[in-house]
Specification:
Residues 17-27 have a biased composition (Low complexity). The protein is mainly alpha-helical. The chain has 12 helices and no strands.
Length: 326
């Protein structure tokens, strides 16, 4: 993540004239406005948004139109058909109903972890980087301690300590958020240390602006693309980690998630019985949602890294040249 967002770009070369570049930055921010914070529309972004919106709508709306996912029928393990869109489990439970409620549970965990981890990383990274001194040293120490401790073993230990009957989706979300903010905080601290030495930030200090206003108005807008990218990554990591914990039996035992679906399918020997309709849908849902978020994250990278902004245009130009040469 090199470089700042387009909010601080000017037509001058900052390396040749730093004063001119810093003086023109507020004007660039006022000219570009919200458009500079939005990713450039590309087929990758459209595909990613389509996947994420479709899965999110399915997880939000579908549970209202399906039956009880825990209702037991005497029909046993049956393939799709006969009124069951995705068949049934070995106890006769509707797989489609389970998939709808499990998708909602995984989305809840992903969004909560993304929000909490982003807030923690912003607090420790931005506040510590701007204030400096003992506060920055203390915040950096906390970040370094969390980085040194292996994430997955720590999550497994914490999940194992919590009793199974108290291990709901929100408990897993808090555990994942507490163990997953440190790396993002280090990135935000480095960006904040660079921004706080800019001329327009110094001018705001000289003008008597309060520190909280300088952070919110002068520094935070330049970090929004980085925060957005970190939020998307945190959601992806949370859903994948929760699925792994649930598959090991350490997930949200009293909540329906895609990971718990895979756990019960594995315990029910779905693979050995060739019951693909039991384990393929939750696995495919995780893969498609992660793919959609990754494509969105690639589009946000074009804002964070200026070197990536002209890549689509250069590819199109090379393609036209090859077509003309042929």
């Amino acid at each position: 993540m090199t470089g700042l967002s387009p909010l601080t770009e000017t037509s001058e070369d900052p390396a040749r004239d730093p004063a001119a570049g810093a003086a023109a930055a507020p004007a660039a921010r006022s000219r570009s406005g919200l458009r500079s914070l939005l990713p450039r529309w590309t087929p990758l972004l459209g595909t990613g948004l389509g996947l994420v919106v479709a899965i999110a709508l399915f997880g939000i709306v579908a549970p209202f139109f399906v039956g009880d996912p825990n209702a037991v029928d005497n029909r046993g393990l049956t393939p799709p058909g006969d009124g069951f869109l995705l068949g049934t489990t070995q106890t006769g439970q509707d797989v489609f109903a389970q998939l709808a409620h499990a998708t909602r549970g995984s989305l809840q965990i992903g969004l909560l972890v993304g929000a909490l981890a982003t807030l923690l990383s912003a607090f420790f990274g931005i506040i510590g980087g701007y204030i400096g001194g003992a506060v920055d040293e203390a915040f950096s120490l906390a970040s370094n301690v969390m980085l040194v401790i292996p994430d997955l073993p720590l999550v497994i230990v914490i999940s194992a300590i919590v009793p199974a009957d108290q291990r709901g989706w929100w408990t897993i979300a808090v555990v994942l958020a507490v163990t997953g903010w440190a790396a993002s905080a280090r990135v935000l601290r480095a960006q904040t240390l660079s921004l706080r030495n800019r001329d327009y930030v110094a001018a705001a200090r000289v003008a008597g602006e309060k520190p909280w206003r300088i952070v919110c108005v002068e520094i935070l807008p330049n970090l929004l693309p980085v925060l957005a990218s970190q939020f998307v990554y945190a959601v992806i990591a949370a859903i994948l980690t929760e699925a792994g914990l649930s598959f090991l039996g350490l997930g949200a035992s009293n909540s329906a998630t895609l990971g718990t679906m895979l756990f019960y399918a594995q315990n029910g020997f779905a693979l050995q019985q060739s019951a693909w309709w039991w384990f393929v849908p939750p696995g495919l849902m995780i893969a498609l949602f992660g793919c959609g978020l990754s494509l969105i994250n690639f589009s946000i990278d074009e804002i964070i890294n200026p070197k990536l902004r002209g890549v689509p245009k250069r590819r199109a130009a090379r393609s036209r040249q090859r077509s003309a040469a042929a």
